[in-house]
Amino acid sequence: MTWPDAEAALVAWLTPRLGVRVCTDAPADLDASLPLVRLRRIGGTDDGFRLDLAVVDIDVFAGTRASAAGLASFIREAVLSALPGSADPGVVFTATSTVAAPAWRPWENPAVTRIGATYAVHLHTAP
């Protein structure tokens, strides 16, 4: 048994709930793909076997600040309220917390608004 792939598990969990593209790398055509959510693991710890504490950045890209903020708020509610206790094939999410609340983050194109947040997500492989 190995530890879970936190990024893949979170993308799989978020995608059907958001109705927008969720990816781990910003696509070359990001400006034409709005709204878009980018999720990246930026740290955390694991036991090398089964348990994982993933620290993830979730960035929302949209054409307006209101749209980006609304989607970021929806994601925050989902991650904190609905994710703990849920399971996807091979993965169980056990707890979540906010490391940095959703806030504006710079992006090179001023026509695109980026709102990002950082979360700690505890997960483990399903038995």
Give a short summary of the structure.
This protein has helices spanning 6-18, 65-82, and strands at residues 21-23, 36-46, 51-62, 87-88, 91-105, 113-125. With 127 residues, it is an alpha+beta fold.
- How far apart are the termini? 9 Å
* Share in helix: 10-25%
Provide the residue-averaged pLDDT. Answer: 93
Helix tally equals 2
| Largest sheet data | 6 strands, mixed
Q: What portion of the residues fall into strands of 2 or more residues?
A: 35-45%
Global structural class: alpha+beta
Say how many strands there are.
6
Unreliable residue stretches: none
Q: What integer value in Å does the Rg equal?
A: 14 Å
Form type: elongated
Please write the string of helix (H) and strand (E) elements: HEEEHEEE
Give the spatial strand order of the biggest sheet. Answer: 1-2-3-6-5-4
Written overview of the protein:
The chain has 127 residues and is an alpha+beta fold. 24% of the residues lie in helices and 44% in strands. It has 2 helices and 6 strands, in the order αβββαβββ. It has helices at residues 6-18, 65-82, and strands spanning 21-23, 36-46, 51-62, 87-88, 91-105, 113-125. A 6-stranded mixed beta sheet has the order 1-2-3-6-5-4. The model has no long low-confidence stretch (mean pLDDT 93).
